[in-house]
Amino acid sequence: MKKRLFSIILCMILIFSFGCNKKAEKDKEKIKIVTSFYPMYIFTINLTDGIDGIEVQNLTQQIDGCIHNYQLLPNDMVTLNNATLLVTNGAGMEPFLDKVSKQIPNLPIVDASKGVKLLGSNNHHDSDEHSHDDKHEHEYNSHIWLSVPNAIVQVENIATALKTALPNDSEKIENNKQEYIKRLNALDSQIKGELENYKGTPIITFHEAYDYFASEYGLLIIGSLETDHGEEPSAKQIASFTKTINEFKIPALFVEPEYKGTSANILASETGIKVYTLNPITSGQNSLTAYEDIMKSNLSVIKEALE
Predict the structure, then answer these.
(1) CA 188, CA 148: separation in Å to the nearest integer?
(2) What is the CATH number of domain 31-117+141-190?
(3) Does domain 196-306 have CATH number 3.40.50.1980?
(4) What predicted TM-score, i.e. pTM, was given to this entire model?
(5) Residue 62 confidence class, pLDDT cut points 50, 70, 90
(6) CB within 10 Å: which end of the chain, N or C, has fewer?
(7) Where are the domains of the chain?
(8) For the chain, how are helix, strand and coil distributed in percent, rounded to 5?
(9) Residue 55 and residue 70: Cα distance in Å, rounded?
(10) Strand partners, 140
């Protein structure tokens, strides 16, 4: 009896081990596309939707805010060593790319900002179409995905790179791109239509993340609470903001979900300005419509704030 029981257990172990090994081999055979952070992940899963043998992995997973200060972990380097392609936002968003290029020189890196007209950092003025010289990238505002037309350019850039890396799936990628861009164009038209009556309305934001959105859809950002170094404004700056809010009759101040400062509440108390929360689309559900869903939610918040 004991011998029979031992044989059964041994068979179960062998079957389980065989199954695990087959799964490991299957996973190893998959083409791994790595994205730098959330919006690039959403764009890429739309382009690769329905294509077998492709795994899209988001390097920084779900994080609050942007990834300007993200430090690569040992596991990240393992992930990148096994990747076929790394999809990045570009425009200076990912400061860790120098390290990746040096340690994994053969890894193709997609700069999805290519061809986008960038805004200068913290000055709300247009710059010329940028050069991809690393020493200049810190001068630009890298939150380009918050303008839908910019997002469409990024999707096109990613699709081009994917078709080069995966020529056998080129037709499917192109079809996915066309379908996704059709949805994004509809989103862009909706935002433009619903914000048409608010063009020129002055607002204050938490930081420069929404400059592209404001520039694209006609809002006027008077200032941003966060300083260049990510600090809360000084008492003198708070006084200046108070004067500006009263002078321009600014109706709303927009912060982000992770905002934990006190200056917004101080300004609200001093001036009566209302504080609203916008999502910069740096985290959320891993669904194909996530970008559209969050943008529509932000649109609803903005309309409520400005009415």
Answers:
(1) 6
(2) 3.40.50.1980
(3) yes
(4) 0.86
(5) low
(6) N
(7) 31-117+141-190, 196-306
(8) 50, 10, 35
(9) 23
(10) 120
